[in-house]
């Protein structure tokens, strides 16, 4: 059975993604957890940290809470 043009295009795109040739989505920015933790310990809000570092509010929260979970599990 012959694939339509759209189906062939989708198949090609999916194979490129699965082979690692093409990444999808927005590229990740480096967000240093140590700096975010230090600023938070100084009393800055997540929004203030986001403005100061140039990162997004959600990125700051994700990195902060992610680093807290890692430290908590390492302490156990």
- Rg over alpha carbons: 20 Å
Q: What share of residues are in beta strands?
A: under 5%
Distance between the termini: 58 Å
Q: Characterize the overall form.
A: elongated
Look at the helices and sheets and give the structural class: mainly alpha
How many domains in all?
Answer: 1
Helix content: 55-70%
Order of helices and strands: HHHH
Oligomer: single chain
The total beta strand count reads: 0
The number of helical elements comes to 4
Structure characterization notes:
With 76 residues, the protein is mostly helical. It has one domain. Helices cover 66% and strands 0% of the residues. Helix 2 packs across helix 4 (57-75) and helix 3 packs across helix 4 (57-75). The termini are far apart. 9% of the residues are buried.
Brief description of this entry?
The protein has 76 residues and is mostly helical. It contains four helices and no strands.
Considering the chains and any ligands shown, give keywords for the structure.
76 residues, single chain, elongated, mainly alpha, 0% strand, 4 helices
């Amino acid at each position: 059975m012959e694939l339509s043009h759209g189906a062939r295009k989708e198949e090609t795109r999916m194979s490129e993604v699965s082979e690692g040739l093409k990444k999808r989505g927005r590229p990740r920015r480096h967000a240093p957890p140590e700096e975010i933790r230090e600023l938070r310990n100084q009393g800055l809000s997540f929004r203030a940290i986001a403005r100061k570092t140039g990162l997004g509010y959600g990125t700051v929260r994700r990195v902060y809470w992610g680093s807290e979970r890692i430290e908590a599990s390492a302490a156990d």
